[in-house]
Every structure is written in C-alpha cells, then in structure tokens.
C-alpha cells in the first residue's frame, strides 16, 4: 500500500533505521489518510496531504529517535491539514469574487471504493445494512465537527495519543485538547443517539 502514498525513500539512512521508518509509515498511512479525508472531504487532496506529511517526516525528522516519530508525524499532518483549509478558503474567496458563489455539490469526493467490496463473511444483508448505516452516520458526524474538535477526537480516539502528544501534534495547550475532545465526544453522542444499543 505504500506505493499508493508514494512513501518517500529514506535515502542515506542506515538499513535498520530505514526499515523502522518504513514500518512506521506503513502503520500510520491508512489512518492518516482517513484523518485527512475527514478533514478535506476529497480523496486526492487527502492523499497529497498524507504524502507530503510523510516526506516532511523523513526529510526533517527521520534522524530523530523512533519514539518521537508518532507525535512529530501527526504534528506535521495537522499543519498540512490546516494549510489546506487556509488555501481552500482563499481559493473560495477568489472564486466567489470572480465567478459568484460556488454551486452546492460541485467537486464532491467520490465514494470510498473499499466500501463496495463484498463481505467475505457472508453476513445477513440486513445486519450489514444496519452496520453500514451506523458507520456512514459516524463518518458524517465526524465530518460535521469543527476541524479542531474533529482532529482532537481522531488523534485521541483513533490514534490513541495521550493529551500531551495530541497537544504537541495540534500545536495547542493540553487544556485545549481536553476541551476539543470533550466537545467532540458529546456532539458525537448526541448525533448518534439513534444508533446506540
């Protein structure tokens, strides 16, 4: 799968470090893509963001101790996501000024092709449909969160980063992480009440 992201060559690094860095990037690439996809809503933009974050980690931090890679990588990823949002906001302002307001739905991201793969377990179609509806509702709810809440939730709940690591990745205080995460959890619980057992 690393080929899909264009995992950067670790060049002159010693073979053990290169193997460790390759393993690390292989472990985080799919989850990082999902985080970027949630944040952008665009598959290609998310791929570009993750690839850029991987290159930045290898170039700038590949020589650091492996224990530091995870928080550093997610800090770089968060910065790339914020940069993307800033650039997108500027582009929208220019488009509105030049061409009028954007039309709703233009440039909507294509569906995830992995969602279309048949279930090899042969589950009951009604169970699969209910699970898919719940998963789709969760993804929609995560996408609707404000960006800082969304990213705090994904870093804490998906990646399992601690409060301090999440604060370092997001470039904010630990108190802000706690606030964003708490608000995200409460918002998600409200929006997903119908899917709770």
TrEMBL record:
<comment type="similarity">
    <text>Belongs to the sigma-70 factor family. ECF subfamily.</text>
</comment>
<dbReference type="GO" id="GO:0003899">
    <property type="term" value="F:DNA-directed RNA polymerase activity"/>
</dbReference>
<dbReference type="InterPro" id="IPR013325">
    <property type="entry name" value="RNA_pol_sigma_r2"/>
</dbReference>
<dbReference type="Pfam" id="PF08281">
    <property type="entry name" value="Sigma70_r4_2"/>
</dbReference>
<dbReference type="GO" id="GO:0016987">
    <property type="term" value="F:sigma factor activity"/>
</dbReference>
<dbReference type="GO" id="GO:0006352">
    <property type="term" value="P:DNA-templated transcription initiation"/>
</dbReference>
<keyword id="KW-0731">Sigma factor</keyword>
<keyword id="KW-0548">Nucleotidyltransferase</keyword>
<keyword id="KW-0808">Transferase</keyword>
<keyword id="KW-0804">Transcription</keyword>
<dbReference type="InterPro" id="IPR036388">
    <property type="entry name" value="WH-like_DNA-bd_sf"/>
</dbReference>
<feature type="domain" description="RNA polymerase sigma factor 70 region 4 type 2">
    <location>
        <begin position="136"/>
        <end position="185"/>
    </location>
</feature>
<dbReference type="GO" id="GO:0003677">
    <property type="term" value="F:DNA binding"/>
</dbReference>
<protein>
    <submittedName>
        <fullName>RNA polymerase sigma factor</fullName>
        <ecNumber>2.7.7.6</ecNumber>
    </submittedName>
</protein>
<dbReference type="InterPro" id="IPR039425">
    <property type="entry name" value="RNA_pol_sigma-70-like"/>
</dbReference>
<dbReference type="InterPro" id="IPR013324">
    <property type="entry name" value="RNA_pol_sigma_r3/r4-like"/>
</dbReference>
<keyword id="KW-0805">Transcription regulation</keyword>
<dbReference type="InterPro" id="IPR013249">
    <property type="entry name" value="RNA_pol_sigma70_r4_t2"/>
</dbReference>
<feature type="region of interest" description="Disordered">
    <location>
        <begin position="101"/>
        <end position="129"/>
    </location>
</feature>
<dbReference type="InterPro" id="IPR014284">
    <property type="entry name" value="RNA_pol_sigma-70_dom"/>
</dbReference>
């Amino acid at each position: 799968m690393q080929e899909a992201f264009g995992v950067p060559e670790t060049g002159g690094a010693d073979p053990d470090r290169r193997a460790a860095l390759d393993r690390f990037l292989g472990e985080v690439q799919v989850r990082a893509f999902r985080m970027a996809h949630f944040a952008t809503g665009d598959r290609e933009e998310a791929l570009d963001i993750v690839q850029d974050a991987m290159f930045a980690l290898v170039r700038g931090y590949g020589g650091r101790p492996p224990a530091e890679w995870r928080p550093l990588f997610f800090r770089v990823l968060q910065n790339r996501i914020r940069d993307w949002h800033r650039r997108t906001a500027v582009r929208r302002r220019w488009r509105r000024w030049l061409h009028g307001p954007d039309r709703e739905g233009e440039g909507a991201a294509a569906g995830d092709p992995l969602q279309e793969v048949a279930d090899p377990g042969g589950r009951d179609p009604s169970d699969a449909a209910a699970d898919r509806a719940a998963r789709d509702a969760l993804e929609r709810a995560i996408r609707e969160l404000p960006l800082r809440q969304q990213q705090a939730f994904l870093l804490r709940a998906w990646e399992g980063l601690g409060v301090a690591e999440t604060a370092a990745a997001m470039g904010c205080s630990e108190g802000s992480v706690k606030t964003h995460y708490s608000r995200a959890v409460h918002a998600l619980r409200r929006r997903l009440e119908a899917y709770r057992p």
